[in-house]
Amino acid sequence: MTAENGQRPGGLTLWHLMMALPWVAVGIVARGQIRDNSFLWHIRAGSLQTEMGQVLTTDPFSFTRLGAPWRTQSWLAELGYAWGERTWNLAYVPWMVAAAALMLFSALAIIAYRRLRSPLGVTVYLVLSTILVVGFLNPRPVIFSYPLFALLVLADDDRRLRWSLPLLLWVWAALHGSFIIGLGYLGLQWIRRREWSRWPELVACFIAVNLTAHGFGIWDVLVEFLGAGEALNNITEWAHPDLLTLPMFPLLLAIFGMFVGFWRGRLGPRDLWVVIPFLTLAFTGNRSVPPAWIGLSFFVTAGLEELGRVRTSRGTIKTPAAAVVALAILIIPLVVPREQGIDPGVFPVEAAELLTADRVFHDDGAGGYLIYSQWPERQVYVDDRAELYGQVLVDFVKARGGMAVWHDVFEEYDIEQVLLRPDDPLVETLNQVGWHEIYRSEDFVLLNPA
After folding, report:
1. What's the pLDDT tens digit per position in 242-296?
2. Residues linked to residue 420 through DSSP beta bridges, in sequence order
3. Secondary structure of 269-337 in the HEC alphabet?
4. pTM for this prediction
5. Residues 82 and 98 sit within 8 Å (Cβ to Cβ)
6. Are strands 360-362 and 445-448 parallel, antiparallel or unpaired?
7. Fewer CB atoms inside 10 A, N or C side of the chain?
8. How, if at all, do strands 445-448 and 436-440 pair?
Protein backbone atom coordinates (compact mmCIF):
# COMPACT_ATOMS: atom_id res chain seq x y z
CA MET A 1 0.00 0.00 0.00
CA THR A 2 1.11 3.58 -0.56
CA ALA A 3 0.38 6.83 1.19
CA GLU A 4 -0.95 8.28 -2.04
CA ASN A 5 -4.00 6.03 -2.30
CA GLY A 6 -5.15 6.96 1.19
CA GLN A 7 -4.13 3.71 2.90
CA ARG A 8 -1.62 3.48 5.66
CA PRO A 9 1.72 1.95 4.66
CA GLY A 10 2.87 -1.11 6.54
CA GLY A 11 6.20 0.31 7.59
CA LEU A 12 8.67 3.12 7.22
CA THR A 13 9.08 4.21 3.57
CA LEU A 14 11.74 6.29 1.87
CA TRP A 15 9.36 9.24 1.92
CA HIS A 16 9.05 9.09 5.70
CA LEU A 17 12.82 9.29 5.90
CA MET A 18 12.97 12.24 3.53
CA MET A 19 10.28 14.03 5.55
CA ALA A 20 12.75 14.09 8.44
CA LEU A 21 15.37 15.99 6.40
CA PRO A 22 14.31 19.46 7.61
CA TRP A 23 14.57 18.33 11.23
CA VAL A 24 18.04 16.88 10.64
CA ALA A 25 19.24 19.98 8.78
CA VAL A 26 17.87 22.39 11.36
CA GLY A 27 19.32 20.37 14.21
CA ILE A 28 22.79 20.29 12.67
CA VAL A 29 22.79 23.99 11.74
CA ALA A 30 21.62 25.00 15.21
CA ARG A 31 24.49 23.12 16.84
CA GLY A 32 27.17 25.00 14.92
CA GLN A 33 29.28 27.92 16.09
CA ILE A 34 28.25 31.52 15.52
CA ARG A 35 29.64 32.62 12.17
CA ASP A 36 27.41 35.56 11.28
CA ASN A 37 29.02 38.94 11.97
CA SER A 38 25.77 40.84 11.43
CA PHE A 39 24.17 39.06 14.38
CA LEU A 40 26.97 40.18 16.70
CA TRP A 41 26.60 43.92 16.13
CA HIS A 42 22.82 43.60 16.40
CA ILE A 43 23.33 42.49 20.01
CA ARG A 44 25.16 45.72 20.84
CA ALA A 45 22.55 47.75 19.00
CA GLY A 46 19.93 46.15 21.21
CA SER A 47 21.90 46.90 24.38
CA LEU A 48 22.33 50.53 23.39
CA GLN A 49 18.66 51.00 22.53
CA THR A 50 17.66 49.42 25.84
CA GLU A 51 19.83 51.95 27.67
CA MET A 52 18.62 54.89 25.56
CA GLY A 53 14.95 53.93 25.64
CA GLN A 54 14.61 54.69 21.93
CA VAL A 55 15.57 53.31 18.54
CA LEU A 56 18.79 54.29 16.78
CA THR A 57 18.58 56.97 14.09
CA THR A 58 22.31 57.72 13.68
CA ASP A 59 25.41 55.54 13.54
CA PRO A 60 27.10 55.03 16.95
CA PHE A 61 29.61 52.31 16.01
CA SER A 62 32.09 53.52 13.35
CA PHE A 63 34.69 56.25 13.12
CA THR A 64 34.12 56.52 9.36
CA ARG A 65 30.38 57.32 9.57
CA LEU A 66 29.90 58.26 13.22
CA GLY A 67 26.73 60.32 13.66
CA ALA A 68 25.57 59.83 10.08
CA PRO A 69 21.80 59.33 9.65
CA TRP A 70 21.05 55.62 9.93
CA ARG A 71 17.98 53.81 11.19
CA THR A 72 18.32 50.30 12.51
CA GLN A 73 15.67 48.32 10.67
CA SER A 74 15.63 45.39 13.15
CA TRP A 75 15.08 47.16 16.47
CA LEU A 76 12.65 44.57 17.85
CA ALA A 77 15.00 41.66 17.06
CA GLU A 78 17.91 43.60 18.56
CA LEU A 79 16.06 44.16 21.83
CA GLY A 80 15.43 40.42 21.95
CA TYR A 81 19.08 39.63 21.17
CA ALA A 82 20.31 41.90 23.96
CA TRP A 83 17.85 40.43 26.45
CA GLY A 84 18.87 36.91 25.43
CA GLU A 85 22.55 37.70 25.93
CA ARG A 86 21.91 39.23 29.35
CA THR A 87 19.88 36.21 30.39
CA TRP A 88 21.73 33.27 28.81
CA ASN A 89 24.89 34.76 27.26
CA LEU A 90 24.96 33.26 23.72
CA ALA A 91 23.48 29.89 24.70
CA TYR A 92 20.05 30.91 23.39
CA VAL A 93 21.22 31.28 19.77
CA PRO A 94 20.84 27.63 18.65
CA TRP A 95 17.34 27.43 20.11
CA MET A 96 16.34 30.67 18.42
CA VAL A 97 17.59 29.48 15.01
CA ALA A 98 15.91 26.10 15.42
CA ALA A 99 12.57 27.64 16.43
CA ALA A 100 12.50 30.04 13.48
CA ALA A 101 13.52 27.32 11.03
CA LEU A 102 11.00 24.77 12.29
CA MET A 103 8.24 27.39 12.09
CA LEU A 104 9.27 28.08 8.51
CA PHE A 105 9.30 24.43 7.42
CA SER A 106 5.99 23.75 9.18
CA ALA A 107 4.34 26.63 7.33
CA LEU A 108 5.85 25.46 4.02
CA ALA A 109 4.54 21.94 4.66
CA ILE A 110 1.01 23.33 5.13
CA ILE A 111 1.33 25.42 1.96
CA ALA A 112 2.44 22.37 -0.02
CA TYR A 113 -0.30 20.15 1.40
CA ARG A 114 -3.00 22.68 0.54
CA ARG A 115 -1.93 22.50 -3.09
CA LEU A 116 -0.88 18.87 -3.44
CA ARG A 117 -2.97 16.97 -0.87
CA SER A 118 -0.24 14.34 -0.97
CA PRO A 119 2.27 13.37 1.74
CA LEU A 120 4.67 12.44 -1.05
CA GLY A 121 4.33 15.82 -2.71
CA VAL A 122 4.82 17.60 0.59
CA THR A 123 7.93 15.54 1.24
CA VAL A 124 9.50 16.36 -2.12
CA TYR A 125 8.77 20.06 -1.67
CA LEU A 126 10.23 20.08 1.86
CA VAL A 127 13.39 18.34 0.66
CA LEU A 128 13.86 20.95 -2.06
CA SER A 129 13.09 23.77 0.39
CA THR A 130 15.63 22.42 2.86
CA ILE A 131 18.38 22.23 0.25
CA LEU A 132 17.67 25.78 -0.86
CA VAL A 133 17.15 27.47 2.50
CA VAL A 134 19.43 25.69 4.95
CA GLY A 135 22.47 27.79 3.99
CA PHE A 136 20.59 30.95 5.02
CA LEU A 137 19.64 29.73 8.50
CA ASN A 138 21.82 31.96 10.63
CA PRO A 139 20.87 34.12 13.62
CA ARG A 140 20.73 37.50 11.84
CA PRO A 141 17.29 39.17 11.94
CA VAL A 142 16.39 38.19 8.38
CA ILE A 143 15.77 34.64 9.63
CA PHE A 144 12.51 35.83 11.21
CA SER A 145 11.28 37.18 7.90
CA TYR A 146 11.14 33.68 6.39
CA PRO A 147 8.51 32.14 8.71
CA LEU A 148 6.62 35.44 8.83
CA PHE A 149 6.41 35.49 5.04
CA ALA A 150 5.28 31.86 4.93
CA LEU A 151 2.59 32.61 7.52
CA LEU A 152 1.53 35.65 5.50
CA VAL A 153 1.20 33.48 2.37
CA LEU A 154 -0.98 31.06 4.33
CA ALA A 155 -3.13 33.82 5.82
CA ASP A 156 -3.61 35.48 2.45
CA ASP A 157 -4.79 32.19 0.96
CA ASP A 158 -7.39 31.60 3.69
CA ARG A 159 -10.15 34.19 4.03
CA ARG A 160 -10.66 33.18 7.67
CA LEU A 161 -7.09 34.19 8.52
CA ARG A 162 -6.77 37.47 6.64
CA TRP A 163 -7.54 39.47 9.77
CA SER A 164 -4.02 38.56 10.94
CA LEU A 165 -2.22 40.15 7.97
CA PRO A 166 -1.77 43.64 9.52
CA LEU A 167 -0.40 42.07 12.72
CA LEU A 168 2.04 39.86 10.78
CA LEU A 169 3.27 42.85 8.80
CA TRP A 170 3.69 45.02 11.91
CA VAL A 171 5.88 42.37 13.51
CA TRP A 172 7.78 41.86 10.26
CA ALA A 173 8.41 45.60 9.85
CA ALA A 174 9.73 45.77 13.41
CA LEU A 175 12.08 42.84 12.79
CA HIS A 176 13.44 43.43 9.28
CA GLY A 177 13.15 45.80 6.34
CA SER A 178 12.17 43.01 3.96
CA PHE A 179 8.54 43.55 5.03
CA ILE A 180 8.17 45.38 1.72
CA ILE A 181 8.27 41.97 0.02
CA GLY A 182 5.20 40.94 2.01
CA LEU A 183 3.35 44.11 1.06
CA GLY A 184 4.31 43.55 -2.56
CA TYR A 185 3.08 39.97 -2.46
CA LEU A 186 -0.33 41.02 -1.13
CA GLY A 187 -0.63 43.72 -3.77
CA LEU A 188 0.28 41.33 -6.59
CA GLN A 189 -2.16 38.69 -5.34
CA TRP A 190 -4.84 41.40 -5.13
CA ILE A 191 -4.31 42.11 -8.83
CA ARG A 192 -3.97 38.44 -9.79
CA ARG A 193 -7.24 37.44 -8.12
CA ARG A 194 -9.00 40.70 -9.00
CA GLU A 195 -10.30 40.95 -5.47
CA TRP A 196 -10.83 44.69 -5.68
CA SER A 197 -13.05 44.75 -2.60
CA ARG A 198 -10.00 43.88 -0.44
CA TRP A 199 -8.57 47.38 -0.68
CA PRO A 200 -9.45 48.34 2.95
CA GLU A 201 -7.52 45.28 4.11
CA LEU A 202 -4.45 46.33 2.11
CA VAL A 203 -4.72 49.86 3.45
CA ALA A 204 -4.78 48.44 7.00
CA CYS A 205 -1.60 46.48 6.22
CA PHE A 206 0.10 49.63 4.94
CA ILE A 207 -0.91 51.58 8.03
CA ALA A 208 0.36 48.77 10.28
CA VAL A 209 3.95 48.94 8.97
CA ASN A 210 4.01 52.66 9.68
CA LEU A 211 3.09 52.15 13.33
CA THR A 212 6.43 50.67 14.42
CA ALA A 213 8.98 52.61 16.47
CA HIS A 214 10.36 54.39 13.38
CA GLY A 215 6.96 55.52 12.12
CA PHE A 216 7.16 56.78 8.55
CA GLY A 217 10.93 56.81 8.97
CA ILE A 218 10.86 53.12 8.18
CA TRP A 219 10.78 54.07 4.51
CA ASP A 220 14.12 55.85 4.94
CA VAL A 221 15.65 52.42 5.58
CA LEU A 222 14.42 51.14 2.23
CA VAL A 223 15.48 54.26 0.35
CA GLU A 224 18.99 54.07 1.80
CA PHE A 225 19.22 50.37 1.01
CA LEU A 226 18.13 50.85 -2.60
CA GLY A 227 20.73 53.60 -2.93
CA ALA A 228 23.54 51.29 -1.81
CA GLY A 229 23.71 49.30 -5.03
CA GLU A 230 27.42 49.80 -5.68
CA ALA A 231 28.32 48.85 -2.13
CA LEU A 232 26.07 45.76 -2.23
CA ASN A 233 27.90 44.57 -5.33
CA ASN A 234 30.95 44.02 -3.11
CA ILE A 235 29.12 41.67 -0.71
CA THR A 236 29.04 37.96 -1.62
CA GLU A 237 25.51 37.33 -0.38
CA TRP A 238 24.21 39.84 -2.91
CA ALA A 239 25.96 38.19 -5.88
CA HIS A 240 23.66 36.71 -8.51
CA PRO A 241 22.71 33.08 -7.74
CA ASP A 242 24.34 30.28 -9.73
CA LEU A 243 21.56 27.85 -10.64
CA LEU A 244 24.07 25.13 -11.55
CA THR A 245 25.21 24.71 -7.93
CA LEU A 246 23.57 22.16 -5.63
CA PRO A 247 22.09 24.71 -3.17
CA MET A 248 20.36 26.52 -6.03
CA PHE A 249 19.28 23.41 -7.95
CA PRO A 250 15.76 23.46 -6.40
CA LEU A 251 15.20 26.91 -7.91
CA LEU A 252 16.22 25.63 -11.35
CA LEU A 253 13.89 22.65 -10.96
CA ALA A 254 11.08 24.95 -9.81
CA ILE A 255 11.49 27.19 -12.85
CA PHE A 256 11.25 24.17 -15.13
CA GLY A 257 8.24 22.85 -13.20
CA MET A 258 6.38 26.16 -13.46
CA PHE A 259 7.12 26.28 -17.20
CA VAL A 260 5.55 22.83 -17.55
CA GLY A 261 2.65 23.99 -15.37
CA PHE A 262 1.95 26.89 -17.75
CA TRP A 263 2.32 24.62 -20.76
CA ARG A 264 -0.19 22.09 -19.44
CA GLY A 265 -2.63 24.72 -18.22
CA ARG A 266 -2.09 24.07 -14.52
CA LEU A 267 -0.96 27.69 -14.22
CA GLY A 268 -2.60 30.52 -16.14
CA PRO A 269 -1.73 33.98 -17.50
CA ARG A 270 -2.96 35.76 -14.37
CA ASP A 271 -0.43 33.80 -12.29
CA LEU A 272 2.30 35.74 -14.08
CA TRP A 273 1.42 38.77 -11.95
CA VAL A 274 3.14 36.99 -9.05
CA VAL A 275 5.50 34.59 -10.80
CA ILE A 276 7.43 37.14 -12.88
CA PRO A 277 8.15 39.64 -10.06
CA PHE A 278 9.24 36.93 -7.63
CA LEU A 279 11.42 35.17 -10.19
CA THR A 280 13.01 38.55 -10.86
CA LEU A 281 13.54 38.96 -7.12
CA ALA A 282 15.30 35.58 -6.95
CA PHE A 283 17.87 36.68 -9.50
CA THR A 284 18.74 39.96 -7.77
CA GLY A 285 21.04 38.18 -5.32
CA ASN A 286 21.67 35.01 -3.32
CA ARG A 287 20.03 36.55 -0.27
CA SER A 288 16.82 37.17 -2.24
CA VAL A 289 16.34 33.50 -3.12
CA PRO A 290 14.61 32.32 0.11
CA PRO A 291 11.87 35.01 0.09
CA ALA A 292 11.39 34.47 -3.64
CA TRP A 293 10.98 30.73 -3.04
CA ILE A 294 8.39 31.38 -0.33
CA GLY A 295 6.49 33.89 -2.50
CA LEU A 296 6.38 31.36 -5.33
CA SER A 297 5.42 28.45 -3.07
CA PHE A 298 1.89 27.83 -4.39
CA PHE A 299 3.08 28.10 -7.98
CA VAL A 300 6.17 25.94 -7.43
CA THR A 301 4.10 23.16 -5.88
CA ALA A 302 1.69 23.28 -8.81
CA GLY A 303 4.62 23.03 -11.20
CA LEU A 304 6.18 20.14 -9.31
CA GLU A 305 2.91 18.28 -9.48
CA GLU A 306 2.94 18.63 -13.25
CA LEU A 307 6.43 17.16 -13.48
CA GLY A 308 4.83 13.82 -12.69
CA ARG A 309 3.67 11.87 -9.70
CA VAL A 310 6.43 9.74 -8.27
CA ARG A 311 5.01 6.73 -6.48
CA THR A 312 6.27 5.66 -3.14
CA SER A 313 8.19 2.41 -3.00
CA ARG A 314 6.26 -0.69 -2.03
CA GLY A 315 9.28 -1.78 -0.06
CA THR A 316 9.05 -0.70 3.54
CA ILE A 317 11.08 -1.11 6.67
CA LYS A 318 9.05 -3.25 9.04
CA THR A 319 8.65 -2.75 12.75
CA PRO A 320 10.77 -2.94 14.90
CA ALA A 321 13.31 -1.96 12.25
CA ALA A 322 11.15 1.06 11.41
CA ALA A 323 11.30 2.25 15.00
CA VAL A 324 15.07 1.85 15.09
CA VAL A 325 15.56 3.85 11.88
CA ALA A 326 13.13 6.57 13.01
CA LEU A 327 14.91 6.88 16.34
CA ALA A 328 18.27 7.11 14.55
CA ILE A 329 16.97 9.98 12.40
CA LEU A 330 15.66 11.85 15.42
CA ILE A 331 18.94 11.62 17.31
CA ILE A 332 21.26 12.50 14.38
CA PRO A 333 21.31 16.22 15.25
CA LEU A 334 21.92 15.39 18.90
CA VAL A 335 25.01 13.26 18.25
CA VAL A 336 26.64 15.83 15.95
CA PRO A 337 29.36 17.52 18.02
CA ARG A 338 28.13 20.86 19.30
CA GLU A 339 30.48 23.75 18.63
CA GLN A 340 29.61 26.44 21.10
CA GLY A 341 30.40 30.12 21.01
CA ILE A 342 31.99 32.29 18.35
CA ASP A 343 33.99 30.68 15.54
CA PRO A 344 37.64 31.87 15.87
CA GLY A 345 38.23 30.99 12.24
CA VAL A 346 35.64 33.53 11.14
CA PHE A 347 36.27 36.23 13.73
CA PRO A 348 39.63 37.59 14.98
CA VAL A 349 39.17 36.50 18.59
CA GLU A 350 42.90 36.25 19.40
CA ALA A 351 44.14 39.03 17.12
CA ALA A 352 41.61 41.51 18.53
CA GLU A 353 43.16 41.16 21.97
CA LEU A 354 46.41 42.58 20.57
CA LEU A 355 44.88 45.74 19.12
CA THR A 356 46.36 48.90 20.59
CA ALA A 357 45.39 51.62 18.10
CA ASP A 358 42.08 53.47 17.96
CA ARG A 359 41.94 53.52 14.15
CA VAL A 360 42.16 49.99 12.70
CA PHE A 361 41.66 49.01 9.05
CA HIS A 362 39.71 45.74 8.89
CA ASP A 363 37.00 43.99 6.90
CA ASP A 364 33.26 43.92 7.55
CA GLY A 365 33.38 40.56 9.34
CA ALA A 366 35.93 41.80 11.85
CA GLY A 367 33.88 44.97 12.23
CA GLY A 368 30.84 43.07 13.46
CA TYR A 369 32.93 41.17 15.98
CA LEU A 370 34.73 44.30 17.22
CA ILE A 371 31.41 46.09 17.80
CA TYR A 372 30.27 43.11 19.85
CA SER A 373 33.49 42.60 21.82
CA GLN A 374 35.12 46.05 22.14
CA TRP A 375 32.58 48.79 21.55
CA PRO A 376 32.21 51.49 22.94
CA GLU A 377 35.92 51.54 23.82
CA ARG A 378 36.73 50.96 20.14
CA GLN A 379 34.88 52.18 17.06
CA VAL A 380 35.16 50.30 13.79
CA TYR A 381 36.26 51.17 10.28
CA VAL A 382 33.50 49.25 8.50
CA ASP A 383 30.98 46.43 9.02
CA ASP A 384 28.28 44.89 6.82
CA ARG A 385 25.81 47.82 6.86
CA ALA A 386 26.15 48.59 3.15
CA GLU A 387 23.28 51.10 3.26
CA LEU A 388 25.30 53.18 5.73
CA TYR A 389 28.84 52.98 4.37
CA GLY A 390 28.28 53.36 0.63
CA GLN A 391 31.49 54.75 -0.86
CA VAL A 392 33.45 53.87 2.28
CA LEU A 393 32.75 50.20 1.61
CA VAL A 394 33.64 50.56 -2.07
CA ASP A 395 36.97 52.19 -1.18
CA PHE A 396 37.61 49.49 1.39
CA VAL A 397 37.30 46.75 -1.22
CA LYS A 398 39.74 48.58 -3.49
CA ALA A 399 42.21 49.19 -0.68
CA ARG A 400 42.05 45.61 0.55
CA GLY A 401 42.80 44.54 -3.00
CA GLY A 402 46.11 46.41 -2.85
CA MET A 403 45.06 49.24 -5.16
CA ALA A 404 46.76 52.60 -4.74
CA VAL A 405 43.68 54.08 -3.08
CA TRP A 406 44.84 52.55 0.21
CA HIS A 407 47.19 55.51 0.69
CA ASP A 408 44.27 57.95 0.60
CA VAL A 409 42.11 55.78 2.86
CA PHE A 410 44.82 55.44 5.49
CA GLU A 411 45.53 59.17 5.41
CA GLU A 412 41.88 60.21 5.52
CA TYR A 413 41.05 58.06 8.55
CA ASP A 414 44.45 58.09 10.31
CA ILE A 415 44.78 54.31 10.14
CA GLU A 416 47.28 53.06 12.74
CA GLN A 417 46.87 49.28 12.55
CA VAL A 418 45.68 46.76 9.97
CA LEU A 419 43.77 43.53 10.69
CA LEU A 420 43.13 41.42 7.59
CA ARG A 421 43.18 37.90 6.19
CA PRO A 422 46.61 36.49 5.19
CA ASP A 423 45.58 36.19 1.53
CA ASP A 424 44.34 39.79 1.21
CA PRO A 425 46.60 41.52 -1.37
CA LEU A 426 47.02 44.59 0.85
CA VAL A 427 48.94 42.48 3.38
CA GLU A 428 51.74 41.81 0.88
CA THR A 429 51.70 45.44 -0.24
CA LEU A 430 52.12 46.71 3.34
CA ASN A 431 54.91 44.24 4.01
CA GLN A 432 56.74 45.59 0.98
CA VAL A 433 56.52 49.21 2.18
CA GLY A 434 57.80 48.47 5.67
CA TRP A 435 54.80 47.55 7.79
CA HIS A 436 55.58 44.60 10.06
CA GLU A 437 53.44 41.77 11.33
CA ILE A 438 52.93 41.44 15.07
CA TYR A 439 50.47 38.55 14.78
CA ARG A 440 49.84 35.90 12.14
CA SER A 441 47.64 32.83 12.20
CA GLU A 442 46.04 30.69 9.56
CA ASP A 443 43.11 33.11 9.45
CA PHE A 444 44.29 36.60 10.45
CA VAL A 445 47.24 38.97 10.25
CA LEU A 446 47.78 42.08 12.38
CA LEU A 447 50.23 44.69 11.14
CA ASN A 448 51.78 47.83 12.62
CA PRO A 449 53.37 50.65 10.59
CA ALA A 450 57.15 50.86 10.18
Report:
1. 888 888 999 999 999 999 889 988 899 999 999 999 999 999 888 899 999 999 9
2. 445
3. HHHHHHHHHHHHHHCCCHHHHHHHHHHCHHHHHHHHHHCCCCCCCCCCECCCHHHHHHHHHHHHHHHCC
4. 0.89
5. no
6. unpaired
7. C
8. antiparallel
